[in-house]
Amino acid sequence: MQRIMLDQDVKPMSEFRANTAACIRQVQKSKRPVVITQNGKSAAVLLDVIEFEAISQRLELFEDIASGESQIDSGAGVSHDKAKEMILGRISR
Fold first, then answer.
1. DSSP of 10-31, one letter per residue?
2. Residue 27: what pLDDT?
3. What is the DSSP letter of 39?
């Protein structure tokens, strides 16, 4: 995802309402999110669908890594040799 350009990618709610289609085209073209403000404070973020899916996939991977690290820390993991033995045992059946 591209970095937000504060002079282009922050829109007040009134501008977003008046120019919704243009904001969506901007997000799709630039691949940068648009921050929508309400009463001068950030209220929402508009993302391109492809960028959202990429972020979601990265988050899922990070959560899987954290889960695996937690399992290893609690002693639930297996050594590389043991995992290899288990997999080869399943394949040879």
1. EEEHHHHHHTHHHHHHHHHHH-
2. 96
3. T
